[in-house]
Amino acid sequence: MMPAFLHLLGVEGPAPMAIKGTCHCGAVAYDFDHAPRWTTCCNCSVCRRYGTLWIYARIPQVTITGPTDTYTHGDRELAFHSCKICGCITHWENLALEGPDARMAVNLRLADPDVMASVPVRYFDGADSWRFVDAPLAGHAQQQAYQADT
Length: 150
Ligand SMILES: [Zn+2]
Hints:
By secondary structure, the chain is mainly beta.
Protein backbone atom coordinates (compact mmCIF):
# COMPACT_ATOMS: atom_id res chain seq x y z
CA MET A 1 0.00 0.00 0.00
CA MET A 2 1.27 3.42 -0.87
CA PRO A 3 1.87 5.87 1.96
CA ALA A 4 -0.84 8.50 2.24
CA PHE A 5 1.42 11.38 1.37
CA LEU A 6 1.95 10.22 -2.23
CA HIS A 7 -1.34 11.78 -3.31
CA LEU A 8 0.06 15.17 -2.35
CA LEU A 9 2.46 15.29 -5.22
CA GLY A 10 2.11 18.41 -7.29
CA VAL A 11 4.74 17.63 -9.87
CA GLU A 12 4.50 16.02 -13.27
CA GLY A 13 6.22 16.17 -16.60
CA PRO A 14 9.45 17.68 -17.87
CA ALA A 15 10.41 21.11 -16.74
CA PRO A 16 10.32 24.32 -18.73
CA MET A 17 12.68 25.48 -16.02
CA ALA A 18 14.83 23.88 -13.42
CA ILE A 19 14.85 25.11 -9.86
CA LYS A 20 18.10 25.46 -8.03
CA GLY A 21 18.41 25.93 -4.30
CA THR A 22 21.26 26.33 -1.87
CA CYS A 23 21.52 26.46 1.88
CA HIS A 24 22.71 29.69 3.49
CA CYS A 25 26.39 28.78 3.59
CA GLY A 26 26.34 27.17 0.15
CA ALA A 27 27.63 23.74 1.21
CA VAL A 28 24.45 21.96 0.12
CA ALA A 29 22.70 22.55 -3.19
CA TYR A 30 19.87 20.98 -5.11
CA ASP A 31 18.91 20.94 -8.76
CA PHE A 32 15.23 20.21 -9.26
CA ASP A 33 14.65 19.34 -12.90
CA HIS A 34 10.90 19.83 -12.86
CA ALA A 35 8.21 22.45 -13.01
CA PRO A 36 6.26 22.23 -9.79
CA ARG A 37 2.56 22.98 -10.20
CA TRP A 38 2.47 24.07 -6.59
CA THR A 39 4.45 24.07 -3.40
CA THR A 40 3.05 22.57 -0.23
CA CYS A 41 2.93 24.51 3.01
CA CYS A 42 2.15 22.00 5.77
CA ASN A 43 1.18 22.65 9.38
CA CYS A 44 2.23 19.28 10.81
CA SER A 45 4.40 19.15 13.90
CA VAL A 46 7.63 19.09 11.90
CA CYS A 47 6.85 21.36 8.96
CA ARG A 48 5.39 24.18 11.03
CA ARG A 49 8.61 24.34 13.00
CA TYR A 50 10.86 24.14 9.98
CA GLY A 51 8.82 26.65 7.99
CA THR A 52 9.47 24.67 4.84
CA LEU A 53 7.75 24.83 1.45
CA TRP A 54 7.98 21.43 -0.20
CA ILE A 55 8.18 20.63 -3.90
CA TYR A 56 8.02 16.94 -4.74
CA ALA A 57 9.74 14.72 -7.26
CA ARG A 58 10.78 11.23 -8.06
CA ILE A 59 14.23 10.71 -6.64
CA PRO A 60 16.16 10.47 -9.96
CA GLN A 61 14.83 13.88 -10.98
CA VAL A 62 16.63 15.71 -8.23
CA THR A 63 20.35 16.15 -7.68
CA ILE A 64 21.56 17.05 -4.23
CA THR A 65 25.17 17.75 -3.38
CA GLY A 66 26.86 18.42 -0.06
CA PRO A 67 26.97 16.85 3.39
CA THR A 68 23.79 16.71 5.47
CA ASP A 69 22.58 15.60 8.86
CA THR A 70 19.28 13.73 9.11
CA TYR A 71 16.38 13.71 11.54
CA THR A 72 13.71 11.03 11.76
CA HIS A 73 10.81 10.60 14.15
CA GLY A 74 7.71 8.49 14.71
CA ASP A 75 7.53 5.63 12.22
CA ARG A 76 10.85 6.78 10.76
CA GLU A 77 9.60 6.69 7.17
CA LEU A 78 10.88 10.19 6.42
CA ALA A 79 14.37 11.54 6.94
CA PHE A 80 14.68 15.31 7.06
CA HIS A 81 18.03 16.56 5.86
CA SER A 82 19.79 19.72 6.96
CA CYS A 83 23.12 21.31 6.13
CA LYS A 84 25.81 20.19 8.55
CA ILE A 85 27.21 23.72 8.70
CA CYS A 86 24.39 26.26 8.58
CA GLY A 87 21.45 24.04 9.55
CA CYS A 88 19.06 24.92 6.73
CA ILE A 89 16.49 22.21 5.99
CA THR A 90 17.26 21.11 2.44
CA HIS A 91 15.01 18.11 1.67
CA TRP A 92 13.39 14.98 2.93
CA GLU A 93 13.66 11.44 1.66
CA ASN A 94 11.27 8.55 2.09
CA LEU A 95 13.05 5.65 3.77
CA ALA A 96 10.15 3.24 3.27
CA LEU A 97 10.03 3.19 -0.53
CA GLU A 98 12.52 2.25 -3.20
CA GLY A 99 12.44 2.11 -6.97
CA PRO A 100 10.32 4.17 -9.36
CA ASP A 101 7.71 5.03 -6.72
CA ALA A 102 10.21 6.48 -4.31
CA ARG A 103 9.69 10.18 -3.77
CA MET A 104 11.39 12.99 -2.02
CA ALA A 105 10.91 16.71 -1.62
CA VAL A 106 13.16 19.71 -1.55
CA ASN A 107 12.62 22.93 0.35
CA LEU A 108 11.60 25.67 -2.08
CA ARG A 109 12.68 28.26 0.48
CA LEU A 110 16.26 27.59 -0.58
CA ALA A 111 15.54 28.90 -4.09
CA ASP A 112 15.78 32.52 -5.19
CA PRO A 113 12.94 34.66 -3.84
CA ASP A 114 11.61 35.43 -7.33
CA VAL A 115 11.45 31.71 -8.15
CA MET A 116 9.81 30.95 -4.83
CA ALA A 117 7.19 33.63 -5.38
CA SER A 118 6.38 32.23 -8.84
CA VAL A 119 5.15 28.88 -7.50
CA PRO A 120 1.57 28.81 -6.16
CA VAL A 121 1.25 27.75 -2.53
CA ARG A 122 -1.21 25.09 -1.42
CA TYR A 123 -1.93 24.66 2.27
CA PHE A 124 -1.96 21.12 3.56
CA ASP A 125 -3.52 20.33 6.91
CA GLY A 126 -0.92 17.80 7.98
CA ALA A 127 -1.73 18.51 11.61
CA ASP A 128 -5.27 17.17 11.47
CA SER A 129 -7.35 16.26 8.40
CA TRP A 130 -4.56 15.38 5.93
CA ARG A 131 -6.30 17.43 3.21
CA PHE A 132 -5.50 20.59 1.35
CA VAL A 133 -7.37 23.59 2.68
CA ASP A 134 -8.23 26.85 0.91
CA ALA A 135 -6.66 29.21 3.40
CA PRO A 136 -3.87 29.03 5.96
CA LEU A 137 -4.70 27.49 9.32
CA ALA A 138 -2.91 27.91 12.62
CA GLY A 139 0.62 26.67 12.11
CA HIS A 140 0.77 27.46 8.41
CA ALA A 141 3.32 30.04 7.39
CA GLN A 142 1.57 33.00 5.85
CA GLN A 143 1.90 33.28 2.10
CA GLN A 144 2.24 37.04 2.36
CA ALA A 145 5.38 36.61 4.38
CA TYR A 146 7.47 35.76 1.36
CA GLN A 147 5.52 36.74 -1.76
CA ALA A 148 7.32 39.26 -3.89
CA ASP A 149 5.70 42.63 -4.42
CA THR A 150 4.00 42.87 -7.78
ZN1 LIG B 1 24.83 25.33 4.71
